[in-house]
Amino acid sequence: MSALDDLMAFQRQTEALAQIAGRLSWDQETMMPRGAAEQRGEEMAAIEGVLHARRTDPRLADWLEEATPADGVAAAQLRLIRRAHERAVRVPSGLAQALARVTSTAQGIWAEARATEKVANFLPTLAEVIALKREEAFALAEGGDLYDALLDDYEPGATAADMAAMFGRMRPRLVRLREAVLAAAPPPPKLDHHFGEGAQLRFARDLATAFGYDFTRGRLDLAVHPFSSGSGNDVRITTRVVETDPFNCFYSVIHEVGHACYELGIDRDYLLTPLGNGVSMGVHESQSRIYENQLGRSPAFTGWIHRQMLDRFGDFGVAGPEEFTRIVNRVEPGFIRTEADEVHYNLHIMMRFDLERALIRGELAVADLEAAWNDRFLADFGVAVDRPAHGLLQDVHGSCGLFGYFPTYTLGNVYAGCLHLALREAVPGLDEQLARGDTSAATGWLRENVQRHGGRYLPQEVITLACGETPSEEPLLDYLDAKFGALYGL
Amino acid sequence: MSALDDLMAFQRQTEALAQIAGRLSWDQETMMPRGAAEQRGEEMAAIEGVLHARRTDPRLADWLEEATPADGVAAAQLRLIRRAHERAVRVPSGLAQALARVTSTAQGIWAEARATEKVANFLPTLAEVIALKREEAFALAEGGDLYDALLDDYEPGATAADMAAMFGRMRPRLVRLREAVLAAAPPPPKLDHHFGEGAQLRFARDLATAFGYDFTRGRLDLAVHPFSSGSGNDVRITTRVVETDPFNCFYSVIHEVGHACYELGIDRDYLLTPLGNGVSMGVHESQSRIYENQLGRSPAFTGWIHRQMLDRFGDFGVAGPEEFTRIVNRVEPGFIRTEADEVHYNLHIMMRFDLERALIRGELAVADLEAAWNDRFLADFGVAVDRPAHGLLQDVHGSCGLFGYFPTYTLGNVYAGCLHLALREAVPGLDEQLARGDTSAATGWLRENVQRHGGRYLPQEVITLACGETPSEEPLLDYLDAKFGALYGL
Question: Which are the catalytic amino acids of A?
């Protein structure tokens, strides 16, 4: 056995254990009895301890020094192992385990606080999570920017300064579009119909299949917060059902299917290796967003959804396909990020980015967070937050310790914009296919040009390779102007 | 930190990781998409590798030598840690991981072979499992009996010779009772009614609650083979539903609730320590069996079930409570162990014990197993096996590598007989309570006298403490003679 063989065999077990940790998180959100929360915290800490010990194993440094990669794939594997090793050695094991334990129980506390609308019941836990994440950021940053150190976990190579600059370029065009749309016409009528849970979930499964989700390597369950979980041959998705608003379920499913198909589409040769995972959250979000929005909310595909829904739910009071498309693409300053339209979505992100950056840098105290949130929301959206579940308590991220994660959503939208432009050039007859409910040309192109590579290239590299040019926010903004301009007759 | 503190802190994480491995097995049987089977095998091998490394960690020997137990509880903890350590160091890590990998995938192969009635599709895998288990037995036995080495894993201190002697004493009385019952009267009529899955599962949940199962620390799902899984505050049960035979579901649930309540009833102070698990499979089975049979199939409790079922399912064609009790206690030489009546059940075990002992000792080849099974079944039950799912393929145990497990079922029945005798003395008005569907005095006595102790005492010790005398098979056989004598007017 060469050093490379030894290293890869060791890493394979680490990857398998990381999959187990992910499956436990899935279980916690979908299946776990609530009385098990504290015990689960200890279990999560124990597996995190094992993972941390493996990632900091001194043999790794030796193997990494000795191993000679034969090709680009092996070199990429070594690069990712080295990166994980170097990050892990900076974080003390006790801190890594404390984070796993606290974030595991924090999720239940957040869900309870959200259900009862009691911010005060969540803040002490959030403060504990933030204190631990700041400690982690200090350890990782080695004198650099604290927020960058966390962001880098989700988007290797990205910096808060770059994000802030990009957000600064995007905001004026988004605000201008938002104002134009809101001034152009009153929003389309809301649905006034009851869509039963069983029928919603049946159609959700058909939608997942229409976007290429393989149910023999995944499953669909209910959860408070929709998510996708796992890599390789076990990639599960969740959704939620609101019986007055079927699009909540349907578009959550399409979104999570985008994430899941990325993982499921990775080259099988990379299974249980570092390359066998999506390369970054930004690229991940590019897949979920292009499935959900550029494909799933396109006038062509919504026509198909409209006909499907008429078959399944009968007449639900929508005048025709054009009105249906406008309803699915309603533009409104709503409270909830996950339900936001494409025009508003990135404004939700910009606000979270600024707030959490201030928290991590120690410029904003947890005690002042709710007021800061509500002030900012009113300033950006022109509406006052009416209750905590519509404000600070809406997102699971804080309880999970996912600081630095939010900007990757907008980066994903930006990447999706670039990919969509390239996809439209590569598949000229796409709308005719989408109008038949056939996504195979689009999802096939994404699998071939993005998904199959897994962690093979850097995030920006894989988008550049797929699109033939360096990604920028322009294609996304052009797409939004064109789409909503046409829908609202601007 | 003293050596004892260090040891217990280390062990706590090992216990947490063992819980994770158990949860993965639960997931595999209930939730996992089938395309994930191979990957899951690698995951199981990886976590088994971690557990094996911890159980063989050289620091354990040092801590065990230095640690000074302050009381009986600490001494019992050390005894169990030492036992696990000494067993683990005899088994090479590669073998432990190979067993985890092979048995993980073998379960899917078994389920498929059973569904398609193709023995030949399972035998190569079974042969592989047996070869690995024999290798493990050689490593553990250190020159002693191979089967004993495996049996000891499930029932510390038990030997095959003791089991064989006990079975020899039990068989004549069981056969005599069986003959008398079968000669006395034709079996009661079978149910001829449809019992919908939803209604069965609703009643199953109420039955579980009636026996004290805490759904805030567990859950009920469907699986091919009913089982209970987990310790501490996350103990889950499964059942299956046959719409023509509701007792399959109902009594599986009561049985698994017995197992689950044992784990849930253990002293909270023992959580995530070696004492925080049921002490042996025999004691475990004593709980599941006394819940299922001595309580659940008693004429008093079946009267309550009968009234509940009339409320829920309407008239399902049973003349009255006496006939209902006879139906629930039907005595018949059926094919399936898990559906066997109390008179036949132990005969199923004796046959499996002899066959698997011969397999492990190398006296029976896997190629000859089906013929040996069918010959023995005909000899013991007077009926020829009509298809593999009714014969060799009925049990999950072989695919899981659970050799040495079967005799603990009968040992559990024997223990249940002893506990039932003591319980009846301790709770004189028990039948009046059971007739109201109230099991609290019975389950409370079992929790107080058996369950709460967890691994604190040796298996025989805990039964002796609860009953005030050394366990023997006599109370079980007396109970069976009395119960079935009364039911069949012998």
Answer: 256
SS3 B239: strand
Give the global pTM: 0.94
Task: With H, G, I as helix, E, B as strand and everything else as coil, classify residue A147.
Answer: helix
Q: What is the pLDDT of residues A231-267, one digit of tens each?
A: 999 999 999 999 999 999 999 999 999 999 999 999 9
Matching residue, tokens 């998409």:
B33
Helix (H) or strand (E) holding A380: helix A369-381
Q: Return left, alpha or beta for A53; rule: phi > 0 is left, psi -120 to 50 is alpha, else beta.
A: alpha
Residue given tokens 């589409």 in the structure block: A265
**Which DSSP symbol is given to B290?**
I
d(CA B401, CA A277): 33
User: Chain A partners of B216 at a C-beta cutoff of 8 Å?
Assistant: 33-35
CB count within 10 Å of CB B480 equals 24
Distance in Å, alpha carbon of B46 to nearest chain A alpha carbon: 5
Q: Rounded to 5 degrees, what are φ and ψ at B49?
A: -60, -40
What are the structural domains of chain B?
Answer: 3-144 (no CATH), 160-487 (1.10.1370.30)
CB contact, 8 Å: A214 with chain B? yes
Give tens-digit pLDDT for A74-113: 999 999 999 999 999 999 999 999 999 999 899 889 999 9
Distance from CA of A281 to the nearest CA of B (A): 23
| Residues A16, B232: C-beta atoms closer than 8 Å | no
* Minimal C-alpha gap between B267 and chain A (Å): 15
Taking CA–CA distances from B237, the nearest residue in chain A reads: A33
Cα A348 to Cα A124, A167, A203, A352, A390, distances in angstroms: 24, 11, 29, 6, 12
B33, B45, B219 ranked by CB distance to A215: nearest = B33
Q: Is B206 on the interface with A (CB under 8 A)?
A: no
